[in-house]
Every structure is written in C-alpha cells, then in structure tokens.
Amino acid sequence: MNVRAKKHLGQHFLNDESICEKIANQFTRHGGCHNVLEIGPGMGALSKYLLNQQDLHVLLMEIDHESVAYLHKQFPDKKEQILSGDFLRLNPDDFYPGVNFSVVGNFPYNISTQILFKCLEHRNRIPEIMGMFQKEVAVRVAEKPGSKEYGITSVLLQAFYDIHYCFTVEPHVFTPPPKVKSGVIRCTRNSRESLNCDEKLFFQVVKMAFNQRRKMMRNSLKQLLNGRELPERFQQERPEQLSVNDFEELTYFIQSN
Q: What is the reported pTM?
C-alpha cells in the first residue's frame, strides 16, 4: 500500500533513506528537550529514524487520513503516537500538555511559512525546529543582513532563534519530484526571552519596512513617525541593512516618542 501524493496538501514524499537519516541525526535536542512533534510524516520515511532513537518521545501529526491509515499499518505498535490533526489549528496543550517539544518534519511547502510562524507564536515551548522547506524559504529564513533574500521572515525568526542552513536536497529524491530544490534548516531557541520594545509594534515595523524594501527607512516608516525624524544612523538605511537589534532599537525609538 502506498499513499497517493495530494497536490492540495503540498505532498512530496521523501524517498532517499540517507537524507531521512541525516535529518534525524542533525536534530540536536536543544535545551535538553526530548519531546518531538513530526509534522506531515506522510509514509513515515523520516518517522522511523526518529522513532528508533530510544531517548526521544515522538508524536506524528498528519492531516491526510490516507497517510494516517498507512502509518497505523507501518507502525502498529505506535498507534497512540500517531495523531490525525492540523498543527496550524491545534493548541500545543492538545498534544503535549504543559511541556516543551521540538518540531521536525519534511514540511508541506504550501504551509511551511505558516508552520514557522505558529512555532514562533509558541517559541517559549519550542526550543528547536528542524526541517525541510522549499530552498528559497530555507535560505530566506537563514539569511543575514545585507542580502536581497533577507526579509520579514529572516528578522522575525532570528529575533528568537539561531538559524543554521544544513544542506540542500535535489528534487529527484521525492515522489513526485517538486519543481524546486529543497533546503534543510535547524532553528534553535536563542537566549532572548523578550524584546526590549513592544512586540506587536516590532512586527509592524519589520513588515512595513520590508513591504517597501526599495525605500529608505525614513520614507517607509513615515506613517509611524508622525512627522518625527529617525535617528541619524537610520536615515540612509534600507531594511535589508538592519539587524534584529537595529529593528529592536528602531521600534523602541518609535514607541518612546
């Protein structure tokens, strides 16, 4: 029995055993966390390498009922660890009540950014995110200031996670092959407990700046400045030149004035 890949779910099943094992082995148990949620396990190619690691407590969460049925047959002794559900719609207490857990997966490309932002929302309970994304997304998340790929996702994720780009994966190792390359990244929670500014305003400043990324900051943030001038060091800057700390400082300036 095989599962039919469904386009509307963004399914591309990874069929290269060495890559599955490599992803599982590069999971670091950051923060001493041994609880793992695998999102979108499909036919369990990565799952078996996670389930075989004795020190991990693994839950598999799959939205596709056909895949869930397949997983029940593939791992008959793990049925209680196989969940039918949508990570984006569930509260962590529905599956890992009151404890931290890391997120791992070959994420469906059509919702991978949403998965990251959901993890960001619960960042104080998710010490590590290890997974595969469309390469363009993976590069964007990991990129540093000064690059055209550096953007909203880069700043917001890097505010709370250290990002490591692990390796690139070619299309032919998937069924069906996607039209793009994939990239595996690891996000580990950094030491920043909170921002030194209003978080909601920080998100607004970052999004407003990058939505007009060709403009200098003094122009893209006019709506928030109410006629005030930015500090001199930001006057000639464009958003891709600013670090997380810079955006934090900038937000605090707007907030304070």
A: 0.93
Same fold, 7-189 and 199-256: no
Which of 125, 124, 107 lies closest to 116, judged by CA? 107
CA–CA gap between residue 11 and residue 157 (Å, rounded): 25
E strands of the chain, at which residues? 13-14, 35-39, 57-62, 82-84, 102-106, 128-134, 161-169, 174-175, 182-189
pLDDT tens digits for range 212-236: 988 999 899 989 988 889 988 898 8
Q: Exposure string (b/e) for 147-163, b if CB count within 10 Å is 16 or more?
A: eeebbbbbbbbbbbbeb
Evaluate the CA torsion angle 161, 167, 170, 173 in order and state its sign: negative
CATH superfamily of 7-189: Vaccinia Virus protein VP39 (3.40.50.150)
Judged by DSSP in three states, 15 sits in coil
pLDDT digits 0-9 by tens, 93-133: 999 999 999 999 999 988 999 999 999 999 999 999 999 99
Domain boundaries, the chain: 7-189, 199-256
Q: What is the CATH number of domain 199-256?
A: 1.10.8.100
